[in-house]
Amino acid sequence: MSLLSVFAIYMVLGAFAGTLAGLFGIGGGLIIVPVLIFSFGAQGFSLEIAAHMAVGTSLATIVFTSLSSIRSHHGHGAIRWDIFRPMALGIIVGALIGAWTAALLSGAALELIIGLFVILVGLKMLLDVNPSPGRNVAGKTGLATAGAGIGWASAIFGIGGGTLTVPYLSWSNVRMQQAVGTSAACGLPIAIAGALGNAWTGWGEPALPEYSLGFIYFPALIGIILTSVLFARVGANLAHRLNAKVLKRVFAIMLLLVGLRFLLS
User: What is the CA radius of gyration of the chain?
Assistant: First the structure.
């Protein structure tokens, strides 16, 4: 398969992931990671590193897509920078440790963990489980500690952390608009630290395909970036025209099926 054909495939995948992310209001990593694992397997990449490459590549794409999201939320005054700064310190440390943790896992173990996480997110969406505000915003130490935990988990799952950060901030009595905006800002340090960590931990891996930097696969990275941001807007526009509850249930069921696919394989 030519390099041009590979780029074209990942541009299509980026369009698909971007549309779904915009349609359902979730980070693209939750979609990109499973899709990349399947596509890397179809390309014949080593199954021992396919999941690691999917996580690393997903985090690298989030570096670019989060910049657009931050600009939009900042323009609406929806980012709590006083919360972001201490969380970001913890996030950087946690994401680096998370990348190292993922590197210690076998490909099968990482796929199993990702599958379980996808199922939990699917159940949360299907049952519409959301935390009720139960406390005030923590101090700097508490925010940094929470950031470390979120960064650690996000780097393992290859996500920007919105699935974890938004519920935490909502539980801390942060208004939903600000929780979403601050979560989007937190996605940038998660992605940068996680991507750098995966580039480092995968450095010198003998099974890596061409055009890789550690566990980051550049044809997928570039192809997804070129289309995902544009099609996220398409998905967001579609979301206003379609039945939100039905869409959410359909997507939740899809996540459950994808998660079960990982567990059963």
Answer: 17
- C-alpha separations of 219 from 56, 147, 241 in Å: 13, 31, 33
Cα–Cα distances (Å) from 258 to 35, 84, 113, 149, 262, in that order, read: 9, 32, 13, 25, 7
Query: Can you give the pTM of this predicted structure?
Result: 0.89
CA angle (210 as vertex; 205, 213 as ends), nearest 5: 55
Query: For the segment 87-122, what is each residue's pLDDT rounded down to a tens digit?
Result: 999 999 999 999 999 999 999 999 999 999 999 988
Cβ atoms of 236 and 113 closer than 8 Å: no
CA-to-CA dists, residue 235 to 80, 232, 254, angstroms = 26, 5, 17
Query: Considering its fold, how many domains does the chain have in total?
Result: 1
* Residue-level length of the chain: 265
Domain range for residue 225?
3-264
What does each C-alpha distance from 11 to 17, 27, 247, 262 come to in angstroms?
A: 10, 18, 24, 24
One-letter amino acid at 48 equals E
